[in-house]
Write a structure and sequence with these properties.
Elements lengths: L1 H5 L5 H4 L17 H15 L3 H12 L7 E6 L2 E8 L2 E7 L3 E10 L5 H11 L6 E5 L2 E9 L5 H25 L12 E2 L2 H23 L7 H19 L3 H15 L6 H16 L3 H6 L2 E2 L12 H20 L3 H18 L4 H14 L1 H6 L7 E2 L4 E2 L1 H14 L19 H13 L7
Antiparallel strand pairs: 1-2, 2-3, 3-4, 4-6, 5-6, 7-8, 9-10
Helix pairs in contact: 3-4, 7-8, 7-10, 8-9, 8-10, 8-13, 9-10, 12-13, 12-17, 13-17, 14-16
């Protein structure tokens, strides 16, 4: 009776379905134990020279059952497959002798020397695939004979093909008027209300950050300014999840700071801020064109041992202490956020970690999630009140969901502080730092 009255018999997701908003970059470091075992099967079958059966296991490993990112059919030794990667589809076939894969980048109705020169230069950076032309169709190709098509070779070859094509198709069409977009009908534009919210908060977050750094001494606070600008890039990448030219702009901003040169941080901060001003000036319709939903098979970043995540969080939390103790709570929170958000941007993280990061961001940006249609919020910024039970319940739910794969994962909810947002962020990320994410 009490369960019916208070809803304890149902999970929160069953009570209030959440909007189907996609956040952040796709991570393929999220496979359940059964999928991971299929990789081992593929490897063993390949060593036994059972090539068709090895391909069955390999493509089963790649398939994300929730998104349907892989289409695979086999009849005897021959078959076909399709892999979705953002705005591109990799199409391939195989028989008893070889496997071939191809992805269409664009159409080039008239030959263009500048385009061909660009492709020739980029060919030198490819390890497994190559650019090619078939009539007016510009494409990338990968192939392997069956005897050398090990799971590792197929994974890295198809990943290079898919991720490079997904990035280059937009950039090539934008840079060369001779090229025409093609083979992107599967991409689904976001609903108009979601695009409006994302554009509004893109403008809001950039404007607030530029206003804040404008009040700080550029020399004395150069480190804090760098943190604010880098944190903003990671937040836009995760929360807005842009594609195409805008994603390339974010990568450029972060690259300005991390480029190994002798320039002082103040100059790098100035250049990053200028790039944000350019982003802020983009017309709404152009920003909308970079906001769409698609399926992915490969992460564009590589997995890292959890030690790298721990070190990033630890370093940021060490650096936020001075700002917290000297009455700069906003800067302190941004620094703490960056230590966690940098990992979400730079690494292919386990889904369990991404789900905890999502909770963290929902606590810190409740107005954004409300605008997107989320009903449940974890923090009321006006009253400065936390929904403690909801937060701890969600943490326990995530741990239970991933217990089979990460049996030693133990987020100690009793160490969380709910007296203010800065202390919550610090204690939350401290627990993230010391999680044992050793998989089973």
């Amino acid at each position: 009776m009490f369960d019916k009255l208070f809803g304890r018999g149902k999970k929160k997701s069953e009570e209030r379905p959440e909007p189907g908003v996609i956040f952040g970059r796709y991570s393929d470091n999220n496979k359940p134990l059964g999928k991971v075992n299929r990789w081992t099967d593929a490897d063993n079958l390949f060593k036994e020279k059972k090539y068709p059966e090895s391909l069955d296991a390999f493509f089963e490993y790649l398939r994300d059952d929730k998104t349907g990112n892989v289409v695979y059919e086999r009849n005897g030794a021959a078959g076909r497959f399709e892999l979705y990667q953002g705005s591109k589809i990799v199409r391939g076939s195989f028989d008893g002798n070889a496997l071939r894969a191809e992805v269409t980048l664009a159409r080039m109705p008239q030959p263009s020397v500048p385009v061909m020169r660009r492709l020739l230069e980029m060919n030198f950076s490819l390890y497994y695939s190559r650019f090619a032309m078939e009539e007016d169709r510009l494409c990338m190709q990968f192939d392997s004979d069956a005897a050398t098509a090990s799971p590792s070779k197929l994974y890295y070859g198809l990943k290079e093909l898919a991720t490079k094509a997904d990035k280059q198709d937009d950039l090539l069409v934008q840079d060369f008027s001779a090229l025409v977009t093609t083979d992107s009908e599967h991409v689904i534009p976001l609903d108009q209300p979601e695009k409006e919210v994302k554009f509004t908060y893109l403008q809001k977050w950039i404007g607030e950050t530029l206003d804040t750094i404008g009040t700080l001494d550029a020399d004395k606070f150069s480190g804090a300014i760098a943190y604010l600008l880098l944190c903003l890039a990671s937040r836009i990448d995760y929360m807005i999840a842009p594609e195409g030219k805008m994603l390339n702009q974010l990568e450029k901003i972060i690259g300005i700071y991390f480029k190994k040169d002798e320039r002082p941080v103040t100059e790098k901060n100035r250049d990053m801020a200028e790039e944000y001003r350019k982003m802020m000036a983009l017309p709404k319709e152009e920003v909308f064109s970079y906001l769409f939903r698609s399926k992915y098979t490969f992460a564009i970043v590589a997995p890292q041992g959890y030690k790298a995540v721990s070190e990033s969080i630890h370093a940021a939390n060490q650096n936020m202490v001075w700002y917290r103790d000297n009455n700069y709570p906003g800067i302190a929170s941004q620094i703490t956020e960056y230590g966690f958000a940098y990992c979400q941007y730079s690494y292919s993280l386990p889904r369990a970690i991404t789900e905890l990061f999502q909770l963290y961001m929902m606590v810190n940006y409740p107005d954004y999630f409300r605008a997107l249609g989320y009903k449940d919020v974890y923090y009321d910024p006006e009253r400065k009140q936390f929904l403690q039970q909801a937060i701890t319940g969600r943490i326990l739910e995530i741990q239970q969901q991933w217990k089979e794969k990460y049996p030693l994962m133990d987020f100690k909810i009793q160490n969380l502080r709910f007296d203010n947002l800065v202390n919550f962020n610090l204690t939350f990320t401290n627990e993230m730092e010391f999680l044992n994410m050793e998989p089973k």
